[in-house]
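Two proteins were folded this term; both appear here.
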Amino acid sequence: MAILSLQNICFSYDKTPVLKDISYDFEKGKMYCIVGKSGAGKTTLLSLLSGLAVPTSGQILYDGKDISKVDKYTFRSKYIGVIFQSFNLITTYTAAENVVLSMDISGSKIKDKKARAVELLKNVGLDEDEANRRILKLSGGQQQRVAIARALSYDPDIILADEPTGNLDGETQNEIMEIFRDLADKGKCVILVSHSSDVADMCDERYELVKISNKKN
């Protein structure tokens, strides 16, 4: 059964159609890649999946429930973890502090959040010294790992990532993809948006968006 489902989703921006009649199913334990040329609506679709935007028509179901009927704050802070293309980390905080802040926002009841943050960062390949460094002292690949650990801090069912390897070298890209693969193998639903055919080839399923032509005859 799909944990997340799109049913005939349409989205328009200023009356200009961006997405039309999109129906996709996403299951736990799988890694998906949403591909398409620039302007096809990939990032828009990710915004819809995360509840940051509302479809013009159609339904998005999480665990069988229409997310329009679910509190958006609860949805984004408990059930779905988002990894933004620009990471959106607080640069004056350490890696661990960024993860702890995410736990605080989600209302986590974990007693020793710092220890849990360090553990999560270790799981994505950062040691304790790196966990205690400020974000600007970390490489792009390390910051990506922090963003992944932050998204995992409240144990969501679904992980969404916007161009998660776009600014990384080939070796680091493969390491990040291995982390996503491990998450899927452990039962998470991992949904990536990417322009990279290499990334798409590493996923279980690929959904391709086609840019809507708005030309008038």
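Next, the second protein.
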Amino acid sequence: MNRKISFISAVSTLVSFWCLIPVSAQQIATNITLDHEFAPNPLILEGTSGGELRAREVAHTSETATGYCDGYVNRQPNHILVLQNFFEFLKIEVESNNDTTILVQGPGGVWCNDDSNNTNPVIEGEWQEGRYKIWIGSYQEKSTNNYQIKITE
């Protein structure tokens, strides 16, 4: 009986501790599945940018066709985007009061961007059907920033 109570107490303590950790530190990726003519359009997601790894380390390159892989990100992506169809045009735009970066890995490759729209990154164009990992980075090391992503078709 004492072992059972001790086990329950230990689990309870761990759960309580986990709940005190900020969501950004827990690294829970937001999962989104989109089909054509999704609503609302734009779809808006929120989160906190930044991390301890250089984006180029995660991307395994320092530059892509859409821009440089700058900034600092977490090991786990901020968002997972699943596209159920090919999109002739899809735009992911990050808005923040601070300088942010974006890294996307998915079918067909890796894309990075830093300053397409002032200090805000944008990735846009054709998108293949499939699963995409999206990291939102902070340009400055050891900096976290609130952001919104606008996904438009």
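The radius of gyration is 18 Å. Residues 1-26 have pLDDT under 50 and may be disordered. These notes refer to the second protein only.
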